[in-house]
Amino acid sequence: MPSRLVRGREDEKGVGGGGHASHDVSSNPIVLPEHDEHVPVTAFDIGGTLAKCAYFSLHELSSSSERDPLVKADSEGGGRLNFVKCDSHEVDRVCEIISQSLASVNAGAGGEREGKVALTGGGAYKLGKIVEERLGVEVVRIDEMSAAVKGATFLMTEIPESIFCVENMEKHPVDVDFDTDPARPSMGEDRKDIYPYLLVNVGSGVSLVKVVGDGTYERVSGTSLGGATFWGLGRLLTSASSFEELLGMAERGDSRNVDMLVGDIYGGNYSKIGLASDTIASSLGKAVRGDKGAFKEEDIAMSLLRMISYNIGQLAYNIAELHGLKRIFFGGYFIRNCAMTMDTLAYAVNFWSKGSKRAHFFRHDGYLGALGTLITVMESSGQRIFSGKNSWIENFGGARQIDEAFFGPEVVKIEGGGEGEEDGDDSDEQERSQVKSPTREKARSVTVPEIVFDMEREKLLPFPKIADVHLYHVQRLTLDLRDARLRTKCLSILKQSRPKLLEKAVNSQGGTEDAQVRANECSDLMSQHAQRLIADPFAYGELSFPFILELREQCLRECGFDHVYHDDKVKETETAFSLLPSVIRKLREEGDEEKRIRGYLCSVLAGNVYDWGSISTMQLYEAGGGSIDFSEIRHGIEEKEQWVYDGSRQFARKLRKSPYKKAVFFFDNSGSDCILGMIPLVDCILEHSPGASVVLVANPTPVINDVTRGELAHAVRRAAKVKLEGSGDLALPHLALAMQEKRLSVYGNGQKGPCLDLKRIPEKLANECNSADLLVLEGLARAIHSNFHVKFSIDTLKLALVKSEIVAEYFGCSTMDGICKFEEATPAATGSSSD
Q: What pLDDT digit, counting tens, does each position of 492-533 carry?
């Protein structure tokens, strides 16, 4: 269980120099989270104000001696990349972080093991000598430009949605292969797709670096007019006492009051040379006339920000054009996620390029140097953690230090509610106050990572049968959360389900005081993330309902609740197996073959109601006195002549006419969903496709009540042995035969949440699916929220029961209506992985 957080004001200069700023860092001692894993390197980027630290904790490989032979490609081990900050002037605190990380190395190794400290940035040499003298450890110094380039390349190639563009003050996440769709670029499989690019590092001054390959770069230009220029002029011309205060002034200012515009000179547009009347002709130009006291500080600050940013943007465009570079990335702590700064840079690049180029930014640009330093040293020591053979995902639940730019500089500001509700309900605070946390006061002296990337020892690739992989994107679909009203409603619905979810989490661990404490902290964490998303919907990348569901699961896992619905799943599994013989017998009684196939699909939809993440399901559960009648739900679905999407008859005709050779099934929930719905459907398809292979796919680890790959393998083995009452015949004979002939395998889907990103599935699963000719996606999260409009180069069946009022509103149907969307193969696009 990782320690809790403290927060302090984070100010620094960027890689290669940047704006100087005041700082306000808590005086509490820094304590890193306790790690039992091997931490071979601690890397620091020492800026003028902040020291940024990156360190990697490696999870040891687990034993695979008890692995189920049905389960394939089971990844073992992984790790976590952690990022923290502290004041670079507090040498004692920096040394304390290093000492604790080295202690973690030895603790994880079970004895003494050599650790390394790697430094970059302007303070690396001065601080390095102090570290060597005080701690007696070897210090490796890394060139900061090299580190920044390596860090930028890693974020582009390994961390989804870590790059974004800005337009009209709004962030728009993008992927890194910009040669495809200019409206929504997508990530290419080849890491070389990103080259060449221009990295504009904006610190005190500005360096423009042409990057042509891994480790191959050249500083091609620069300017002395950078972050320090903005801050220096601001100190001379305004009363601002910190960089942040100057930025705040700029955000409230109107530069038109102090800048001379084209309209001020010509009385309107200068149409002959294409200049609009509101184009800046001269920054601070109006100051040559009138009394100096007539100009507001806020307007002056805005003029300075635009003057510096426009010039940097213009220089970046000119250099990119000169060197034939399409891609321009801006980094450095001058930017520090300020929407106005980014919007000005983006406007300049767009203006001078006439729309042919865009400015791109990093969500974690402040850590480029520390990250690159860590990678450089680990690679030089022969460790291939960052080789591209592993997969990475940002763990927002593990990052307890939520951006203080929104929450303020206080040390641990914990608030309840805040999801944008109008009722001002304080029930969250009342709930939390019932149990006092013995760890909460201790938390105030602990610093935990601000950013966390989790690593798995498996490479993730796109599902090979996506018709056009370059256009694939996990969809916002039914819930476009760019809409503020829908976003607030969605977060409010999740808040409504939170108390019962956390009550179940506590009960799943015996209702102990420790579990209650962690549940309270989990509620705090969820609430803080929700507030952040209300304030900045794109703070974590593109906001979607799938992402929110995954964020909830991350928070639960990080607070020690990794299998909340275990007891419910066991109970539902036993109930489902008791019903299986009668369900199969009823299906076999149907004389018409097409109607019988539709009956199997009805069972899948009925089983899909058993989703404990759904408020509608929980209401049914309570109305039924603690249970849901499968037969009743199935009867209601079957009685409908037409579902909201009904391709059941089309699929039945295709199945009878053209047997499949290999079918891939992505499962949703455990219990009745799996045992009475999906597993019988697998048997049905095998019956009509003699000799076919089937690949069954589920989450590798628990998520809500979704079935895991291990649980699925166990359920399949048990289901294959179930016999019909009376006759003694096998209920699912085709499933049993496929197992006997080794034509059935179970894989993990590589996901950490309830949704399905088919651009990131395990490599071995992707290879297994190369020869597939049927894809079955089940569940609202996997089939609807994630992949409803995606086209595939093989036949596809998308199945789900509508259990959400928002989804019902989108489709114009009622809850408990069925979706059975069957699509025949779409020709694969040239260059896609299906070719």
A: 777 777 888 899 899 999 999 999 999 998 988 888 888 888
The model's pLDDT over 304-355, given as tens digits with 9 standing for 90+, comes to 999 999 999 999 999 999 999 989 999 987 887 788 899 999 999 999 999 9
* Residue 137 zone, left/alpha/beta (φ > 0; ψ -120 to 50; rest): beta
**Strand ranges in 286-370 using DSSP code E only, listed in sequence order:** 328-331, 359-362
CA distance 332 to 352: 22
Q: How far apart are CA 94 and CA 102, in angstroms?
A: 13
Percent of the chain with pLDDT over 90: 39
Bridge partners (DSSP) of residue 165 are 172
- Three-class secondary structure of residue 402 per DSSP: coil
pLDDT value for 50 = 75
Question: How far apart are alpha carbons 165 and 171 in whole angstroms?
Answer: 6
Q: What is the dihedral of CA 84, 90, 96, 102, to 10 degrees?
A: 60
Please, how many CA atoms are within 13 Å of residue 484, restricted to the half-sphere of its CB? 6
CA separation for the pair 104, 628 (Å, rounded): 49
Sheet holding 163-167, edge to edge: 170-174, 163-167, 359-362, 328-331, 197-202, 206-213, 216-223
CA gap 474, 160 in Å, rounded? 11
What is the average pLDDT across 409-423? 30
For CA atoms 803, 808, 811, 816, give the dihedral sign. positive
Question: Do 735 and 685 form a contact (C-beta atoms < 8 A)?
Answer: no
139 has a pLDDT exceeding 80? yes
Instruction: State the pTM of this model.
Output: 0.79
Return all residues near 829 (Cβ < 8 A) that are at least 6 apart: 467, 468, 469, 470, 471
Q: Is 61 exposed, middle or buried (0-12, 13-18, 19+ CB in 10 A)?
A: exposed
Q: How many CA atoms lie within 13 A of 466 on its CB side?
A: 24
Instruction: Give dist(CA 652, CA 281) in Å, integer.
Output: 69
* Integer angstrom CA distances of residue 438 from 561, 601, 797: 19, 51, 51
Q: Cα 146 from chain centroid?
A: 27
